[in-house]
Amino acid sequence: MNVLVVGRGGxxxxxxxxxxxxxxxxxxxxAPGNAGIAQDASIVDIDEMNFADLxxxxxxxxxxxxxxxxxxxxxxxxxxxxxxxxxKVFGPKQNAAILEGSKSFSKMMMEKYNIxxxxxxxxxxxxxxxxxxxxxxxxxxxxxxxxxxxKGVTVAMTMNEALEALDDMMLDKKFGDASARVVVEQxxxxxxxxxxxxxxxxxxxxxxxAQDHKxxxxxxxxxxxxxxxxxSPVPHISQAIHDxxxxxxxxxxxxxxxxxxxxxxxxxxxxxxxxxxxxxxxEFNARFGDPETQVVLPRLENDLVQVMLDVLDGKxxxxxxxxxxxxxxxxxxxxxxxxxxxxxxxxxxxxxDAGSVIHAGTYADGDVIRANGGRVLLVAGSGANxxxxxxxxYGKMQHIDTEHFFFRKDIGSRAxxxxxx
Length: 421
Ligand code: AMP
Ligand code: GLY
What we know:
Layout: E1 2-7, H1 10-20, E2 27-32, E3 42-43, H2 51-60, E4 65-68, H3 71-75, H4 78-84, E5 89-90, H5 94-101, H6 103-112, E6 120-123, H7 126-136, E7 140-144, E8 153-156, H8 159-171, E9 182-186, E10 191-200, E11 203-206, E12 211-212, E13 215-217, E14 221-224, E15 229-232, H9 239-259, E16 265-275, E17 278-285, H10 292-296, H11 304-313, E18 325-333, E19 357-359, E20 362-365, E21 368-371, E22 375-383, H12 386-397, E23 405-406, H13 413-420
Helix pairs in contact: 5-6, 7-8
The protein binds adenosine monophosphate and glycine.
The site of adenosine monophosphate (AMP) has 16 residues, from β7, β8, β9 and β17.
């Protein structure tokens, strides 16, 4: 088979690595890819949003399966387009990708199908939003309705912060059209974890859990980012909580989407909070998580391509997982998630085995690898438990020159602290 992966981030690099391992696969193409993906796949210089050229390329090369990584092309209908051209696609259609594309749609679904989540209201009117925030009080959470690269959420601990965030979103249009509508919701407290599942209609095949680190700096300080590191499994999320999350959250949302005439095929990602009242949903994404995928897929024993084909055919893929812990640390450009420099050289990569380096925002400039994104790459380590995986990953990370880059020093520390209790 020939497989085309669409996207250019760390998630797509991890997908390409896994697809390349499949005995079913002859060639893995990736459009548009990055400098690291080029080591594992054949790079195609077509933008994710250029559906016509992607379709023409896939037909010309006899591509048997297209795997779409990012949310933007999914929300814009890439699956509908490519299927219309006769291609097989693993990813939701546009009418299902709205599960991620609109937070107010996703909150409506949770309410309608009794899926546990934070109490909320959504607003298009500034004054009404302001009055609701003042009535509810802080801490409180504001979310741009549309896609904002994981940065559209403010967890406001004070009323001032909340009102400032509201001004940024609704008056200053910080996220453009994505924040013309704003969801305001109750602040949830607890342990956060991510659970992804392969989904086809009402069939749901859960993966193992991971934990992301959303804040930019150590001890969960600083602004929210796309994710600064992750690990899997999450030892302090028990099998019982995992199963409860699948039964109360993932299966009902898949069923609800079918009931709405928006049957979902692809990956549903649930961002969850284990509260005192049990698991609650923070968000749904319509795709693999980033950086969760980089630590979950290496643990999958199955052939990923066979799993996707089985799911599309309505067959049970019977997922199996390696016992080991995998932990990934994100290297980001100084300044991220606000303004940052591009073009800085990555020094020290040669000292790390290429299999452990997952590229996110890089390009090749002759023999030099340079950064062109906020999140630049992820270094993965593994071991029998989170302590070993953490040591392994940080041991590799120390080779990288951080003049222009930074990383968190505490990825995995929550798991380790919990294990000591
Ligand atoms: P989201 O983009 O919806 O995943 O939100 C980004 C991050 O903000 C989440 O990963 C949480 O850490 C935090 N967050 C979002 N919603 C809430 C909430 N209702 N209560 C507490 N924290 C939240
Ligand atoms: N790590 C969360 C996400 O992919 O949105």
